[in-house]
Amino acid sequence: MLCLEHGRYTVASGSTGLIRACVDASVQYSHARKTFEVPIGEHQLVKEMIAGMAAGYEFSRLLWLKAGWLRNTGKRATRETALAKWIACEQAEKAAAEAVQVHGAYGFSDEFPVERFYRNSKGASIYEGTREIQKLMQADYALGFRQDKPRRHNLPPWPFGNDV
Ligand SMILES: Cc1cc2nc3c(=O)[nH]c(=O)nc-3n(C[C@H](O)[C@H](O)[C@H](O)COP(=O)(O)OP(=O)(O)OC[C@H]3O[C@@H](n4cnc5c(N)ncnc54)[C@H](O)[C@@H]3O)c2cc1C
After folding, report:
1. CATH number (domain holding residue 41)
2. Of 26, 27, 95, 119, which sits most exposed with the smallest number of CB within 10 A?
3. Is residue 58 annotated as a catalytic residue, yes or no?
4. pLDDT tens digits for 129-144?
5. Strand partners, 34
6. Domains in the chain: how many in total?
7. Nearest of 60, 81, 93 to residue 138 by alpha carbon
8. What's the gap in Å between 133 CA and the centre of ligand 1?
9. Ligand 1, atom nearest to 132 Cα
10. How far is CA 28 from CA 39, 81, 86, 124, 149, in A?
11. Is the CB of 140 within 6 Å of ligand 1?
């Protein structure tokens, strides 16, 4: 479980970065591409997609930072990393799908990076514990069905007692 906690933390981090990449690519394209004589970013339904990605980025990042803070202070973060992993992966899949949509047919081609974001976002929902496993864990914590077993070893807080 300690290994999974490390792995899930890195996947949450990577997926949060993927959402950021989707926002950046979509914002750039929304300024550049014009339809009906205006940049597509001025159409309300395109704004809705950008808003969803931007919000997903913020709350994924906050959950990931919370897990990171707990880990840096040497506290157990099994529950928090599982939650951060689930939400960041789910939001990354959503953001990547919307990023393809914002790019229209170009999003489907490999001329822009968003089709790669779409494929990569899917893998993260499967490895290091599937989305379903993360959900079951959160439900079991909330219902009181799950208690973490004591660890045989704990990692020291970072930066290992120094004030730097
Ligand atoms: C890109 C990629 C890279 C990977 N890298 C590695 C790696 O480096 N090392 C490694 O060891 N593995 C790796 N894997 C494998 C990955 O860990 C497994 O695919 C994953 O654990 C799911 O197992 P499975 O594919 O056998 O799916 P299954 O266990 O067959 O699950 C199939 C579906 O049923 C659901 N399901 C299964 N059991 C339950 C349950 N009890 N309750 C609810 N739903 C359930 C799952 O969530 C999933 O949706 C990788 C996978 C991918 C896609």
Report:
1. 1.20.140.10
2. 119
3. no
4. 999 999 999 999 999 9
5. 39
6. 1
7. 81
8. 9
9. 47
10. 10, 31, 28, 25, 47
11. no
